[in-house]
């Protein structure tokens, strides 16, 4: 039997992996794509140096939730909307936390790492219930159908960034994106002691720095165009690019959050607008391939960088180095409420049709690793 000390170290290691560290522990890319008929689709990647015990969870209308923020009373709420989500079990509270999901109105929610998280000091009396930021996913997906409704509710609902460890250490380092079926999008961010709910007309988000920095940085890319400029003449010298694709030469090539943000804006904006949902999902999958990261492409010394890397597998069996990789990619048809997932060890997406689960009246969970390679298992995960 493992020792109590070992179990404590394991729990803390998993929690650190779930919520990240003060360095970069989750390198995620989230974007919104629109088709030619004003249909909208959300997508994101999840990068980590290790696998977590991901579940695919279904929550029907009427599900009861509770959110505990430090010494405040538990905020209790009941689901007004059914939703499906990728979740991670919390090893302390034993409930699951939403990392990505969509509800029956086509509202989607994503968690992305943000190391500079710093929430406001709570000015609410402990006798009042406060929403913990880590529960924003369950709250938003269960209560609201549009981005406008979420924004309006956040004007009244106190939210607190809770600490992972005792004595207020390690605030959960996330910011959050919300999209709806009309193409509206917001970023929810806790930065410099303020809660910021920011309209996101481009629908793109990655990680740090703060969202406003990324938007300012786009001023350095006003040259972006998908038109190849393949010919140039200088003093009678004719220069000709013999291949297509020169239009992307000015895009940042790195997998940093800054580089991925710019590329996500480019690909989500300039990719051809599909004529139907099937074509849109196919196009969206090609867009997200540009953010797919194989293991070993960039490596980190586990003893010099992230605390979470202590428990991560080595690269090429070398225990000194670890590597972030795309653990899974999701695609969401916000109109049809179709939720697609592809894991690192699978070539194909599995699909969940939220509308087909409407007759289920209880919360159900399926281990992602058990259904990721078999569409039949995925389709029947909650119905059998």
Q: What can you see in these coordinates?
A:
Strand 1 (29-34) and strand 2 form a beta hairpin. Strands 15-14-13-8-7-6-3-23 form an eight-stranded antiparallel beta sheet. Residues 1-25 have low confidence and may be disordered. The longest helix is centred in the first third of the chain and has 16 residues, at 4-19. It is 20% helix and 29% strand. It is α+β, with helices and mostly antiparallel strands and 384 residues long. It has one domain (4-207, 277-379): Penicillin V Acylase, Chain A (4-Layer Sandwich).
Summarize the structure.
This protein has 384 residues and is of the alpha+beta class.
List the helices and strands and how they pair.
Layout lengths: L3 H16 L9 E6 L5 E9 L6 E5 L4 E4 L7 E4 L4 E7 L6 E8 L4 E6 L17 E2 L3 H8 L3 H8 L4 E2 L2 E3 L3 E3 L2 E6 L5 E7 L2 E6 L11 H7 L13 E4 L2 E4 L16 H14 L6 H13 L10 E2 L19 E2 L2 E9 L4 E6 L6 E4 L10 E4 H4 L3 H5 L5
Parallel strand pairs: 9-10
Antiparallel strand pairs: 1-2, 2-20, 3-6, 3-23, 4-5, 6-7, 7-8, 8-13, 11-12, 13-14, 14-15, 16-17, 18-19, 20-21, 21-22
